[in-house]
Amino acid sequence: MPRKEPATRLDPRYSAPEATPTTWAEAREQLETAELYWLSTVRPDGRPHVTPLLAVWLDEALHFCTGAGERKARNLAANPNCVLTTGVNVLDRGLDLVVEGPALPVTEETPLRRVAAAYEAKYGSEWHFDVRDGAFAGQGGRALVFQVSPATAFGFRKGAYGQTRWRF
C-alpha cells in the first residue's frame, strides 16, 4: 500500500516559539516500534473505556486484536470510532502520539496472516497466532483483529514543546 503523506501543521498555540513540526516519518517510526499502546473506545452508555494493548503498524495502519467478548470489542461493534495513543511517561523529553480513526475488522485470510506474522516478528514467538475463520486463534482463544488507519493524528513533542497535527 502506498504511503499516505498527511497534511502537517504545527499548532503555535501549544508550541514553544522555537518548535518545528514533527515529521510524519518520525511519528510513523515510533508507531512501528512502540511496544505498548492505549486504546480508547466509547461504551454504549457514552462513558469512556481505556485499556492498554499490543499493536503492530502495517500497511499504514495500526492493527490490534481482542477477544470478541471483551469490553473494547463490544464497544467497537456499537461505535467503531476510537483513539490509540503511545509515548513516554516523562515530561521533559520524547514524543507522545495520538491516532484517531475507525477500527475496522480484518477478516480476510491473507491480511490476517500478514498481521499475525507482524505480531510474531515484533513481540516474539509468545505472540504467535494461527488464522482461522476470519480471526486469530492462539493460546487465549479466538481474537478479532482490527485495523485503524489514521484520519487525524497528533504528536506532542516534549522538551521544546510542540504540537503537530497530521490530517489524512
UniProtKB/TrEMBL annotation:
Biased segments, Basic and acidic residues type: 1-12
Keywords for the protein's UniProt record, in alphabetical order: Oxidoreductase
Region (Disordered): 1-21
InterPro entries reported for this sequence: F420H2_bilvrd_red/Heme_oxyg, Pyridox_Oxase_N, Split_barrel_FMN-bd
Domain Pyridoxamine 5'-phosphate oxidase N-terminal: 25-127
Keyword Oxidoreductase: yes
Pfam families: PNPOx_N (PF01243)
Domain of life: Bacteria
Listed GO CC annotations: cytosol
Protein name in UniProt: Pyridoxamine 5'-phosphate oxidase family protein
Species assigned in the record: Streptomyces palmae
